[in-house]
Design goal:
15 strands; three-stranded parallel β-sheet; Pectate Lyase C-like; 37% helix; 14 helices; alpha/beta
Length: 418
Amino acid sequence: MLHFQHQSFAEMLLAEYYLKIFLKFSFDDELNVEEIRVLLNLGEPTPQTIIFFKELLELLKDSIHDIESRKLLFPLIAAVGTKKYNKKAFSNSIYYEWLKKSNLKKRNSYPSELINDWIINDEKIIYITTLAKKIIESNTDYLKANVNTHNTLFDNEIISLKNENLSQVSLNIDKYLSILVGNILYNDKTKHKFFNSTIKDSKVFFELINEWSYRFNFQSLPIWVSQYFLGINTKGTEMKIIHNINLSNINFSYSNFENMNIFQAYIYTCNFNNCTFNNFYIKATRIVNTSFNKIISIKNSFFIYEEKLPPYIMARFYPTNNGQEYNRKPYLTDKQYTAWGNNEDGSIFDKDNLEEENDIELIECSIVLKNQLVEVSGFIRYGLLNSTFTIDEVLNSFDYSSIEVKDEFEEIIYNLIK
């Protein structure tokens, strides 16, 4: 059911325009990807526009088998086959293969012959996702801005922006839209079928993250697309070195990560559930509230971050000595430690002013039993189930604030492998 509340008419029209462009150029032979990209780059859409666009895509997918969805979509698709109202989005295929079969004049109800002989089928969905794939794989960058061009003595031109900051200009919006289109129309978790795994060079996903993060104050991605980065496959590619990147609120689940080195990064509230890791390294990276549950496999991989994972335990996932020392143990506690607080006299202290070095280490490597095990439990579970290490080895890899904390942690460990 489509919801029109709190959405302006212009936002609804823009969502319909996006779908019309994908329909027209997917069905017709006029497949000029760069022309299509220009037509889609109209600046960043509002959340309301994206909500409506996502519902249209879901309707499109459902319409293959659902009569009511066909009726809801009929006016939009019929409009794409009507040249009078669609100069740029008119589709010859929709008109001649489908719409022309019925005389729509003086009709006051849906033409049953067109509803029953519906133009959208599995093959047409593949046409649309193939177009989305080609857009994402395009090597050209497009930005929407008010510019002037200036001639030089050489082949290139100089572009000046009018009253705009380059760091705030929307870049390659069509690629984010295409990720949305491809994932909604193609994905099937039950069959482990993911649109993102069809992209030839997975590097594009991290380039898009970097581009957006640079322009919008380290926000990794538009919020409306961040949950559609699942099923990425980097297998068969050269080693990717990714550093100084902000990965926040991104769903990377069901991905196959191979030949990747992430360091000096910030990973916050991400989802790496049901993933495979091969030649995958995370070093000198802050990871917060990020889950690695139901790991499929870990081979030749190394994870060190914030001392939360015992280095000795994590080194067991890597078969050779990598030069790391593993003497330090994380400190497991039932109390919350912070890097600052109040002294007895009411004054503020921070870790730079602490006199005892051990206090500093305690703050930096402590794990609060109740709320900071989310980042480590998936690795511990995988290692135990695959005999990478034993429960005793896990228990001996932590220091504890009390016997009670150790007993509670032991119970958590046993529950992980039930």
